[in-house]
Amino acid sequence: MKKSLIALAVLAASGSAMAQSSVTLFGIVDAAVTRVSGNGAGNRIGLSSGGNSASRLGFRGTEDLGGGLAASFWLEGALNVDNGNASGFNFQRRSTVSLSGNFGEVRLGRDYAPTFWNSTNFDPFGTRGVGQALNYDNFGFGSVRNSNSVGYFLPSNLGGFYGQAQYAFGEASSTAVNDKAGNYLGARVGFANGPLDVAVALGQWKQVIGATTTALGSDFRMANLGASYNLGFIKPMIFIGQENLKNGAYGNSKANSYLLGATAPLGAGELRASIARFDLKDSSNDFDKFAIGYGYNLSKRTQVYTTLAYLKNKGNSVRSIAADGVAATGTTPGGKSTGLDIGVRHSF
Fold it and tell me: Are the C-beta atoms of 346 and 44 separated by less than 8 Å?
């Protein structure tokens, strides 16, 4: 009898703890047959990963601490569906721990940079596949995520206003020439209420481009603005962004990106289209890109899709279309490039 009572007490305590905590396994598996081509460079055909949404596997959980306070974690890694993560699995998409309450949320770890969100949220193709606008990282610096970051998010009860700020430690030695290399400071603020969503973001990475042990690296700065308005039958969107190198031995350079796009419900799916332009200041080496695609929902979790993209270089620009798992072919200077995705996405 005593053993039975002890067992019941343990079960009751365990049930109480489980009621206050939750852990979720989630993910997306997305693969496409992709063809890319470029003038003078032929074409490539292969299997790409994440043509519509980035393939991923993750775990997230929340514990209710009482008094409106909660602790959370989020571990998310990329899935390469084309080769099964031949190079190994990690949690570099996101690995964070946070505390949240009426004050908002404080988040620590590897997370998205605030300056990236406008690039993906106001791109009809979500910066994925052959259709993405190519409106960020045009100087070759990886600006999507920051490691070693501390972030703050406004609470969600501000009448549609939202925002975040983030600082990331570059962790360089104080005696190094580039002692601030990798330090990031950025923020994003926006308003989403009813059909309107508009946000502005800016940020800076210190001494990251052209940095050596003897030469000071240029600061990499980003600023962008995005907006969308859902009319029901169509949701138009715009994006204006600037990437800027300042100071350092690498010198100064500036590039502007522009996008006009839209999504529209069509049958059991969604039509997507965009026109984008990349403009390198004081240079004719620019490019324009056009994309159109359609995703058909077989269920709430499964979609088949196709995207067609066309890129036209100007001047001596040699940009060409690529996809995760299918490398760009390259083009002749001023040449053209095309891309085609036909794929399926399943979320769980």
Answer: no
pLDDT at residue 88, rounded to an integer = 93
Q: Which residues contact 313 (CB under 8 A, 6 or more apart)?
A: 285, 286, 287, 319, 331, 333, 334, 335, 336, 337
Q: Is the CB of residue 265 less than 8 Å from the CB of residue 126?
A: no
Q: Which residues contact 171 (CB under 8 A, 6 or more apart)?
A: 148, 182
Q: What is the pLDDT of residue 346?
A: 98
pTM exceeds 0.85: yes
Can you state the percent helix, strand and coil of the chain, rounding each to 5?
10, 55, 35
Sole residue written with tokens 């909660």: 70
For residue 2, pLDDT beyond 50: no
Q: Are 273 and 292 in contact (CB under 8 A)?
A: yes
d(CA 335, CA 341): 21
Pairing outcome for strands 56-66 and 42-49: unpaired
CA–CA separation, 205 vs 208, rounded Å? 7
Please answer whether residues 142 and 110 qualify as being in contact, where contact means their C-beta atoms are separated by less than 8 angstroms. no
Q: What confidence tier does 18 reach under pLDDT thresholds 50, 70, 90? A: very low
Q: List the beta strands (DSSP E) in 155-284.
A: 161-168, 184-193, 196-209, 218-229, 235-246, 253-266, 269-280
CA dist list (Å): 201 to 68, 104, 113, 115, 188 = 29, 19, 10, 5, 4
The distance in angstroms from the start CA to the end CA of the chain is: 44
Q: Is the Cβ–Cβ distance between 341 and 328 less than 8 Å?
A: no
Quick check: 129 and 52 in contact, CB under 8 A? Answer: yes
Q: Looking at residue 19, what is its pLDDT?
A: 43
pLDDT(283) > 50: yes
